[in-house]
């Protein structure tokens, strides 16, 4: 069993199983306290304890922007070189190539 230990005001040590704890962090955008589904993260295999967890408002906004971007038909041929470079540098880290 994995557990954590806390000290009470009486200086007693209590062991709490990790599965009985709720985990939280602050949303990096809005600062809202957000519950962290720790065991879901661990199940994905790409677990990083220093990752950011966003609040529901951020998740909804992100989904809205992703939908808008997927619906856009961008004409790269008419984009000037400086804007094309800027756009490329912005999206390059998020591509799989």
Fraction of residues in H or I helices: 25-40%
Q: How many helices does DSSP assign?
A: 3
DSSP, total strands: 4
Question: What is the N-to-C order of secondary-structure elements (H for helix, E for strand)?
Answer: EEEEHHH
Strand order of the biggest β-sheet = 1-2
Strand content: 15-25%
Shape: elongated
User: What is the arithmetic mean of pLDDT?
Assistant: 85
Contiguous low-pLDDT stretches (5 residues minimum) are none
Q: What is the CA-CA span between the terminal residues? A: 42 Å
Described by strand count, sense and barrel closure, the largest sheet is: 2 strands, antiparallel
What class do helices, strands and sheet pairing give?
alpha+beta
- The radius of gyration computed from the alpha-carbon positions, rounded to a whole number of angstroms, is 21 Å
The number of domains = 1
Write structural notes for this entry.
With 97 residues, the protein is of the alpha+beta class. The protein has one domain (3-56, 65-94). Helix content is 35%, strand content 16%. It contains 3 helices and 4 strands, in the order E-E-E-E-H-H-H. The protein has helices at residues 38-44, 56-71, 81-91, and strands at residues 3-7, 13-17, 24-26, 33-35. The strands form 2 sheets. A two-stranded antiparallel sheet has the order 1-2. A two-stranded antiparallel sheet has the order 3-4. The longest helix is centred in the middle third of the chain and has 16 residues, at 56-71. It starts with a strand and ends in a 6-residue tail after the last helix. The mean pLDDT is 85.
């Amino acid at each position: 069993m994995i557990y954590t230990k806390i000290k009470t005001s009486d200086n007693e040590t209590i062991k709490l199983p990790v599965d009985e704890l709720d985990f939280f962090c602050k949303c990096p955008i809005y600062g809202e306290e957000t519950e962290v589904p720790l065991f879901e993260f661990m199940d994905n295999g790409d677990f990083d304890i220093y990752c950011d967890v966003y609040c529901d408002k951020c998740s909804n906004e992100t989904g809205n922007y992703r939908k808008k971007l997927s619906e856009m038909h961008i004409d790269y041929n008419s984009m000037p070189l400086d804007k094309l470079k800027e756009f490329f540098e912005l999206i390059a880290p998020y591509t799989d190539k």
